[in-house]
């Protein structure tokens, strides 16, 4: 495992601007770089990257960190994978130990599947039978380059080839849990025989399952495709084919194409579109959607053009929601791979990028009754479509779909359809506030709105306090007072000038006005006592609280002259000295109230005198 100093050295070798600019358009702004934050929606840039100090900080949502935390957050990967990626970017070779793999109880299963994938690939690329399979793949447009990129393989006709080659290397219990074998009459057989093999990898690149496709015309075995059954490392309702390789492109474009099978993904890959994944012939699930929503904001459904594919699109819309979804319909009932073969990969790329339609356009065609001459069928269809039309945010869009609906309904004119839409719109608008609030609470998990909460309390830990409980698309950090800005500037000076921190550390009477700054000050003291100086990157890594870490990066974002003068420090202290004295006054008032309740006359007299003296300081 990497040591802390090794990671620090790696970060020093790489300019954080070079790393982040792969995913965010940055422009120079003084000593820093700014851009639109990739972690929340915004129109005005508030995402700040400091090349000199090696960190980023968003003044809109508070997201902060260094090279590694950016890769973790943006690409939704673990710490070690982020370190590996940063090392690859820097051209540095890392020597990671095997401790993590040994501690992982599923490591033998990953190892078994990885070795099986290598065997399958060797059989495809280095045997006589493999040459025949390659000739078949060549006819389908699968070149040696694609075989290598997707690590394709071949399961031989022998019924136990993989078992015979791997059984001596793994425990029988591991073999039984792998999904690679089946058992009958006290014998063990390979689960895949005489099939082109498509390995399914998890987000870390480990092979967790396989999809096997028939390739010989005389093959009468079941199913065009068969997939690994569920195992401890493979959940078909969670894993997505090609996600590990597509993730960088998805994270950058914020779009993902959803397809049915591996051959469709390969067709898109050959067409030059890489942000594609497949559900391996299974229906889209909530687990799939939750996983994709961490990476993408738009989903393009590109399923087969047959009835099964269209039904899958209809069901997927319920999970994804119509606002974030577009659809590409493959004509003539073809699947994407067939379309590319019939026309060209360029035609497929054009269809995928320019042939997208909105969900409502798909629904009008999908739900259109077979017999539109029947008046009741028309009425039912009109009822279904008006309910969808009024959901559109634009009146212009609503009008366009009204006109399209009129073209489909032989017994209704424009005015009649428009009236039906208007009536539906009025009914929707008449819903009471209570009904709307209950819907929001049920749909989002947020409570029903309540009266406003008092303004941000400086004495509380640093945290936004909204005026009312509501969903905010772009959270905002509270505006800081003059005193808070002075406290941040002073902390910035302490971080970069250890002598100044030590001076205040020895002043027993000194305290920051606001609790969250005082907490940070105390942690800085412990850091200085341990390491003599403050290394911002090292200190930030030790802050486990996200809000506290965001506050720290906000503080070091101050662009100040290198050296602080005595006059600057005195001005900073003077700017919040009165609030410090007020805090002392309020503390004495509380102590006096306690003394009165306890009937302690002597203590009450002392505190009264102290209050009088303290009040004089405030005048």
Topology at a glance:
Blueprint: H1 4-13, H2 16-20, E1 27-29, E2 32-35, E3 47-50, E4 55-58, E5 64-65, H3 67-75, H4 79-90, H5 99-103, H6 107-126, H7 128-139, H8 144-150, E6 153-155, H9 161-166, H10 172-177, E7 181-184, E8 187-190, E9 195-201, E10 207-213, E11 225-227, H11 243-253, E12 255-259, H12 262-270, E13 276-278, H13 286-293, E14 298-301, H14 307-320, E15 325-328, H15 336-342, H16 345-354, E16 356-357, H17 359-366, H18 375-389, H19 395-408, H20 414-429, H21 433-444, H22 482-496, H23 498-505, H24 515-531, H25 536-542, H26 546-556, H27 566-598, H28 601-618
Parallel strand pairs: 12-13, 12-14, 14-15
Antiparallel strand pairs: 1-2, 2-3, 3-4, 4-5, 6-9, 7-8, 9-10, 10-11, 15-16
Task: Tell me briefly what this model is.
Residues 254-335 form the Toprim domain. The chain is of the alpha+beta class and 619 residues long.
Placed side by side, the strands forming the largest sheet appear as 1-2-3-4-5
User: Quick one: biggest sheet?
Assistant: 5 strands, antiparallel
| Structural classification | alpha+beta
Number of helices: 28
Radius of gyration of CA atoms, rounded to a whole number? 32 Å
CATH architecture of the domain at 100-234: Alpha-Beta Complex
What's the overall average pLDDT, rounded? 83
Low-confidence stretches: 98-102, 431-477
Domain Toprim: 254-335
Biased composition (Low complexity): 459-478
Zinc finger (CHC2-type): 37-61
Subunit structure: Monomer. Interacts with DnaB.
């Amino acid at each position: 495992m990497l040591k802390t100093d090794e990671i620090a050295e790696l970060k020093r070798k790489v300019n954080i601007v070079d790393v982040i600019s792969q995913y965010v358009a940055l422009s120079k702004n003084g000593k820093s770089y700014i851009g639109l934050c990739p972690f929340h929606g915004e129109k005005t840039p508030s995402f700040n990257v400091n090349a000199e100090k090696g960190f980023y900080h968003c003044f809109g949502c508070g997201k902060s960190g260094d090279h590694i935390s950016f890769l973790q957050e943006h690409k939704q990967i673990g710490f070690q994978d982020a370190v590996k990626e940063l090392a690859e970017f820097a051209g540095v070779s890392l020597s990671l130990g095997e401790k993590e793999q040994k501690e992982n109880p599923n490591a033998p299963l990953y190892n078994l599947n990885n070795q099986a994938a290598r065997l399958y690939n060797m059989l495809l690329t280095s045997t006589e039978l493999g040459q025949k399979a390659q000739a078949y793949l060549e006819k389908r447009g699968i070149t040696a380059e694609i075989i290598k990129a997707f690590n394709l393989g071949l399961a031989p006709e022998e019924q136990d080839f993989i078992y015979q080659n791997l059984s001596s290397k793994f425990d029988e219990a591991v073999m039984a849990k792998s999904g690679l074998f089946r058992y009958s009459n006290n014998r063990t057989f390979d689960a895949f025989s005489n099939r082109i093999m498509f390995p399914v990898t998890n987000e870390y690149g480990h092979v967790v399952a396989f999809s096997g496709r028939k390739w010989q015309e005389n093959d009468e075995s079941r199913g065009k495709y068969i997939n690994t059954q569920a195992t401890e490392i493979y959940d078909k309702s969670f894993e997505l084919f090609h996600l590990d390789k597509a993730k960088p492109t998805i994270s950058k474009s914020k779009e993902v194409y959803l397809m049915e099978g591996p051959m469709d993904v390969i067709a898109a890959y050959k067409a030059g579109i890489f942000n594609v994944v497949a559900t391996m012939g299974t229906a889209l699930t909530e687990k799939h959607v939750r996983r994709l929503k961490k990476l993408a904001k738009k989903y393009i459904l590109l399923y087969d053009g047959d009835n099964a594919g269209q039904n899958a699109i209809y069901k997927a819309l319920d999970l994804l929601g119509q606002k974030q979804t577009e659809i590409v319909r493959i004509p003539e009932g073809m699947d994407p791979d067939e379309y590319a073969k019939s026309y060209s990969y360029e035609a497929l790329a054009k269809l995928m990028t320019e042939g997208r339609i909105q969900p409502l356009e798909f629904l009008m065609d999908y739900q259109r009754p077979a017999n539109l001459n029947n008046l009741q069928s028309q009425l039912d269809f009109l009822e279904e479509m008006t309910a969808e039309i009024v959901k559109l945010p634009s009146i212009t869009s609503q009008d366009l779909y009204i006109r399209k609906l009129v073209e489909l309904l032989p017994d209704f004119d424009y005015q009649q359809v428009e009236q039906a839409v208007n009536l539906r719109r009025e009914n929707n608008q008449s819903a009471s506030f209570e009904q709307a609030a209950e819907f929001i609470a049920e749909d989002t998990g947020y409570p029903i709105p309540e009266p406003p909460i008092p303004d941000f309390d400086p004495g509380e830990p640093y945290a936004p306090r909204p005026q009312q409980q509501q969903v905010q698309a772009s959270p905002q950090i509270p505006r800081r007072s003059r005193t808070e800005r002075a406290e941040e500037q002073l902390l910035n000076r302490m971080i970069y000038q250890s002598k100044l921190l030590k001076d205040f550390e020895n002043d027993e009477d000194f305290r920051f006005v606001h609790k969250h700054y005082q907490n940070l000050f105390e942690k800085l003291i412990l850091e200085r006592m341990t390491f003599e100086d403050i290394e911002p990157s090292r200190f930030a890594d030790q802050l486990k609280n996200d809000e506290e870490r965001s506050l720290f990066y906000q503080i070091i974002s101050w662009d100040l002259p290198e050296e602080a003068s005595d006059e600057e420090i005195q001005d900073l202290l003077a700017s919040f000295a009165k609030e410090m004295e007020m805090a002392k006054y309020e503390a004495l008032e509380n102590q006096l109230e306690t003394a009165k309740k306890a009937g302690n006359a002597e203590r009450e007299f002392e505190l009264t005198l102290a209050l009088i003296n303290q009040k004089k300081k405030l005048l």
